[in-house]
Amino acid sequence: MKELTLLGGARLSGEIGVHGSKNAALPILFSCLLFSEPVELANLPDITDVSAALSLLSSLGVKIVRKGRGRVLLDPSSACSDGCDLSLSGSLRGSLYLLGATCRRFPGLTVPRPGGCNFGARPIDLHLSVFRAMGLTVSESEEGVSVRGRPKGARFHFPTVSVGATVNAILSAVLADGRTVLTGAAREPHVLDLIAFLRAAGARISLPAPGAVVIDGVPRLYGVRHRVCPDMIEAGTYLLFTMATGGEITLRAIPPGELACLLPLLAGMGARIGTGVDSLCLARTGKLRPVSLTTAPYPGFPTDLQPQMTALACLADGESVIADPIFPTRFGYVSELRKMGAKIAVADGRAVVSGGSRLTGRNVTAPDLRAGAALTLAALAAEGESRILRFDRIERGYAALTRNLAALGASVTLSDGGA
Ligand code: EPZ
After folding, report:
1. Is the Cβ atom of 117 under 6 angstroms away from ligand 1?
2. Ligand 1, atom 20: nearest CA belongs to which residue?
3. pLDDT under 50: residue ranges of the chain
4. What is the pLDDT, as a whole number, of residue 387?
5. Among 65, 110, 326, 378, which one is least packed by beta carbons within 10 Å?
6. Does the pTM exceed 0.85?
7. Which pLDDT score, from 0 to 100, does residue 392 have?
8. Residue 193: CB within 6 Å of ligand 1?
9. Helix 369-381 to helix 232-245 angle, to the nearest 10 degrees?
């Protein structure tokens, strides 16, 4: 397993380019199975979740031609589910999208219950409800979940905003018979990027109001080229790293509007922020002030930045309160932060952070992707050396993280760390 050795104390300073969005790349990759002709994707992030998705597609007979950094040609014309090996999908939450993407092509394909980041319950009831609403027969077994039937347009309201269930509803509806009307749907930039991709391929999708998606089924989709949108969570993570070290950073290829949920909070904590059309610069000025926030679906504060913000709050001059009603048990990493000297109390999906901590470098283990980013932030600000074990879990979602940190002035060494 990989581990990162990091000597804390350096002020991060410099400029980096934001990579393509993991959470846009995954639905767009799996949606290629809706096509009968090739699609070309650019700006795919070089992360292990994308490699895993490409392996799954290859096992389903999709021909994959790599055409340079982050660019692939996917030809699904001879895709076939016979003999496919979906055992890999257990590690990937996004593999659930195979159900929506193949319900017409491979009816009854059994997809193992998804894995992904393990920070508590990850139910799939909304995915199954929307499949049933579209007239599909859902079967659940030890092996996993399958859907059968010919999807028909339906009206469906999401009682809880769900990125994944919204994606599966869209994938099932684009080739369905008739009109599907979704309300209470997710509006994250990565969901809108999937919609833009499908529209460019001939799908008939409109967004009449916030959270509303209207899809008129079409007989087929046409091959297109698409550049995956930038990763707002990667961008936000680097801004938080910079705040933690008192440095300054310029991010290229990120529309600042996508971080409207974060920037005012950072300004309130003591950041000076400048914005361009698709660039952002941030510098921390003076002491770090505390913060209070509650995560919410986009355009609210993203749960995927909650761990990193909680770690930053440890350094603030005063008490912070961070609530995560989306994933109330997404605080498993706090025990690792406490090893470094953090003073955090967690109860009922809320972290109360005492702040004013002087963190000390320690050996810590990344429980999952964003928690690993939180531990990396703490190590950057800590006194002395930290070793972050299971760094492989962080590499699932952050391309070139070690290279970027070194370029920004951090003292980092990545090793295989033995077995
Ligand atoms: C996606 O997960 C992301 N993963 C997550 O990012 C992200 O944290 C999450 O959306 C929220 O933004 C990918 O895109 C691959 P949800 P997803 O369905 O789709 C409840 C990362 O770090 N819910 O939007 O699984 C659920 O419990 C990962 O990149 C149901 O109740 O999340 C939660 O409270 C971690 N029933 C809320 O909805 C369901 O069937 C939002 O979850 C599905 C979800």
Report:
1. yes
2. 162
3. 419
4. 97
5. 65
6. yes
7. 93
8. no
9. 20
